[in-house]
Hints:
The chain has 468 residues and is α/β, with parallel strands linked by helices. 33% of the residues lie in helices and 16% in strands. Helix 12 (321-333) runs parallel beside helix 14 (387-401).
Amino acid sequence: MVPSKIRPFRLTFVHPCVGRHLGMKKYIRTWQMEPLSVATLAALVPSDVEVRFYDDRLEAIPFDEATDLVCISVETYTAKRAYQISSSFRAHGVPVVMGGYHATLCPEEVAGYCESLVTGEAESVFLELLDDYRFGRPKAKYVGSPKHDLAILPKREIYGQKKYLPLDLVEFARGCRFRCDFCAVMSFHNSTHHHRPIDVVVKEIESLKRNRLIFFIDDNMTCNIEAAKEFMRAIEPLKIKWVSQTAIHVAHDEEALQLMKRSGCQGVLVGLESLNPETLKTMRKGFNLMQGGAATALANLRNHGLRIYGTFVFGYDTDTETTISETVDFAREQGLFIGAFNHITPFPGTPLYKRMQQENRLVYDAWWLDDRYRYNEIPFLPSKMSREELADRCVQARTDFYCWSSILQRVKHKVQWQSGHMLFNYFLINWMHQRDISGRNGLPLGDMNWQGEWLPSEHAETAISMGR
Length: 468
């Protein structure tokens, strides 16, 4: 395809939703954050290319609008909807490129619904891909590399006037060196970790509105603790407020804790996952037991004024109704600002998935494509309880944690009421979670309102055999 002398090449980015019920009008508000990957790739597009962006969570996608190429980033939960969107564009004769986590973890499947597949980090090959399509020489597969320039300033103008949550997403580092067996991030990045140039990230932060909370979306911001410290020293003069995700090891580094507080950290998401030492070892998170374990680590974080979003997962072979109840009691006593109590999900490409597959414990060949599967359903056979019992216990754990007696119990920790503003937010956020204890349960993957026909590409044999 030779670029037209009359008009520019037209490129369309699409961000798919997870799914929709029949007749569903409004989408889940807490899932409406800016898709930073779209803004990052948009920053690479040459000025003579016309760029459009549609977010499936917020607006209808104009499938009949003329365009020359569509790019879709695919996650496991959005794969089914991504294939619907791709089929609709391809029915209009438009080629589709797919990348993202799921494209790397399930390349043969994803290749069944697009003209070109991108595995790995797309920034390293995106310009090559775009030029190939502009000049009529596209390849079926592009392999991205982590060894590329991360000094890209996202082009947030592409968001237009879309009503995203009032939160700025910024990336400092990507990947994680730990090897947790349930983690798709580990599988995608092969347990590697690298960060963007600090001066570039500082420049990006300076371009943002100063009255908004910044969420550093790093999978593990403090994986490289010395680089994280250098970064926090650099952003301290900016007087921002931020949150991020971290492994528990940072709670035992006094200098890091002081830098976090001084640089504006309001709280951190910590993957506590389990209180059982054997379970932690099974999931390859034995490091959570270091220097006194979770209780000591959480106390250190609270003592430095850092609020804690603790996450737990249930469904390992040592989990019972009793261990789940004990976990909720611990979370309440420790004064977690908020908490997540979910079942483990065997994502393709992870050691957990492979182990369950070998043990014949997977209920579906590919749960993310199966029409019977619903969000928050247990797609595997637990050891100590039934699938229904595990699902019910997860809901009960959230109910017990977000009941008013628990909210009032946890607010007694000083970290929750260091200011009137934070106290107000504590009650507001916990009330919102209380209302959404089971709100997403039962959501279908893919849009049930979609009336199109599945249109696999010539590479579709594997995709069809895996569920379609």
